[in-house]
Model the fold of this input.
Amino acid sequence: MNQYLPLGKYSFGMGDRFAHQGKAQLQACRLATELGASFIPVWNKSNREHTFIGTEPASTRAAADAAVQALGWSQPYHVDADHIRLETVDRFIPHSDFFTIDVADSIGKPPAAESLAAFVARHPELVGTLAIPHIDQPFHTTPEYVAKIAGKFLLAVQEAGVIYQHIAKAKGAANFITEVSMDETDSPQTPPELLIILAAIADAQIPIQTIAPKFTGRFNKGVDYVGDVQQFEKEFTEDLAVIAFAIGKYGLPPSLKLSVHSGSDKFSIYAPMRRALQKFDAGVHIKTAGTTWLEELIGLAEAGGDGLEIAREIYAYAIEHVDEFCAPYASVIDIDKAKLPSAAAVNGWSSEQFVAALRHDQQNPAYNPSFRQLLHVSFKVAAKKGDRYLQALKKHEAVVARNVTENLFVRHMKPLLLGQ
Ligand SMILES: [Zn+2]
Done:
């Protein structure tokens, strides 16, 4: 296996769209670490987010470095080029040390017949009765099944290999962490599929440390999980069993773990995840992004005055462009348009009303998930406001930072690792 930069056991991916919340986010890691939940911070920003906002990957690195210096953070930290492909990776290479290689688009495309036949021939261990420790029922597979699943994923893995080699050549294999993501696709991957994918990844010599499968259920942006929580727990637990097994069987990095692209705020699956992680003493990488941008809006609204004004303006623009903003995220949002307040109504809202509708507090009857999802996908509007938005963040830094830190620490990190 190739060399790699090791990733810590628990790592927390946090997006910072406007690169102003690094310190507030890192403060959440610091508070969690003080309680024994040591999260390695990873700042992730995708090519799509950079494009929408008009920023360059160098700005993510600069913000991360500045936050680390300001807080005197002495543990590792990373900058993730999130959801990159061969055609988008280059501008990230000098600035990132974590690469999320997204090959979801190639899932289902047929590989070359010879390479498929060679894969099946190389892996007789995948055929028959597969008893994996900690999975109650062994999997029963046939050569046809293995060929069918490999036929679905092999090309995607080969492509990941090409992208990995491209990065390794430019950067040196020992200088970065590799994730492979398959979450942005239609159907979830089952545990036996995950095993076949990992076998193929090992064949491709990718020292993968995090893998992001698509899990069962809906992972809508900024709101809670929608789906069968028990089924999720069963699959998540079986995925952990498969990973532990594959590390030994295929010589993958011992730090290999699941990456959960949460779309932020999947609170109802944190307890099931915690139970499963404890069972295997496994690590996890949890990725959030938009939750921080929404806390910026909450902080601005809470500040009142010009802060509230800009938050109202952003909503007014968003509701006017609702179809345009929702289109790129159609598969990861469920907005009930009837529940979206009019711009005029929101213009009359107080700070408390705006905050209550937006803050992810499911106990609060005024919380409005449709309002929250629309604003989640409307960060472009804040980008359009340019310096005025950034000045507002600076002016109201204290209240914004308090919301950003508290959200990550109290609603995410504590429930995920500490169960409180
Ligand atoms: Zn993702």
About this structure: The pocket of zinc ion is lined by residues 83, 181, 183-184, 212, 261 (CB under 6 Å).
